[in-house]
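Hi there,

I know you've been waiting on this one. I reran it after we fixed the sequence typo, so this is the corrected version. Both the input and the resulting structure follow.
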Amino acid sequence: MSPSLMHLAAFVTAGPGRPGGWRFPGSVPGWLSAGYYQNIARTLEDARFDLAFFADILSVPDRFGGSPDSQLRNGALGSMRLDPLHVLSSMGAVTSHLGLAATVSTTYAQPFTVARSFATLDHLTEGRAAWNVVTSFQESEARNFNRDEQFPRDQRYERADEFLEVAGKLWDSWEDDALVLDTEQPLFADPDRVHPIRHKGDWFTVQGPLNVPRPPQGYPVVIQAGASAKGKDFAARWSDVIFCSHASLESARDFYTEIKERAATHGRNPDGVKILPSVAPVVGATSAIAQQTFEELFDLVPPLGGLSTLAYHLDVDLSTFPLDERLPDVEVPGVEGHYQEVKEMTEREGLTLRELGKRYGGRVEGGFIGTATEVADGLEEWFRQGACDGFMVQAPYQPGGFEDFTRQVVPELQKRGLFRSEYEGSTLRENLGLPRVQSGEWANRVRRATEASR
């Protein structure tokens, strides 16, 4: 893909998602149906999106007031989440180009299982699999996996580093030509080209080899969303795509510059790390109609539903603070990027915690509200101003938000020469402009990380 073209990914929720959005008349509640996700997949592929991305949570969050009540009652972020790998399998069956990204935590999974699952998905979709790597940060998640409390942040990232190393070794345990399928000899797979990995580390002992041949992409595309210092370093080392969230063009541009510099420090081509900030456009035939739609959506957002989601993201019990005062400075065990976003929002607009909850639940990242032309203007500005390589498009309500964007904004972007009209390749890496990963790349990443730390 030409550097002048942006990438588009869709943030799809295997559940109700945004508090308030599921109540909007344009929302279709088919979250337990394969057909619901298959229709979204077709919509995205028809618009030539790079990929569909599913976040995941391994608990019903209970950080707000020590109870899951506010999540469940308001249909907030973690009130219901289907297993994204199964959802993606159903979407892969009705598409041929759309990339398929699932979130899997390195804190509560094992490398062999994850490497096997994504290698399988990559084969079944002919090279369209992507793994969103998360380290998990909620005590409620730890309690679902035989732990009384979560690992400290540093340990989570240490485990994640080794997890990625082991996954890379397992994907490389089959040479590219190891599957022979010679019926005459017979020789199904050449034993000399399939290797045990014999990994023994601080966190994992894995014999190998994998029982799935090397993935079509070499490694599935790796996505990450770290915004802390540790997270940024991890992302710059391992990620092909970085998903982020910003309250302004300026903060997005600063993040973009920093990540590209960190990637270069790790000996990587900065163009090989694609940065996609989150946007949630509200599109209308006129500016007034778009604004009215936004206001209707915003009115449906319960403040406690938004605060409950923010409490989950920050891993801070926000119920302990007065609702009609500003959010104070707090230590954030959770997602540092979301804290910087709401801190910037609070300081800029003087929001009380109650107002912040409503804003966070109904936020439109980047402020993209308007006609297709106006939304495209905003996206073009961010793209041309060096704030991103494209966007992670969230729908304020599903599936209608994706339909509005793909039918109205995408043609405008195509008309401006900013987005593809046809897919360039057959694999996700090809469509992202990324090379196939050569065997042994995990060792290069580990070596470069060691050199960068000296």
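Quick highlight: The chain has one domain: 7-286+367-452.

Best,
R. S.
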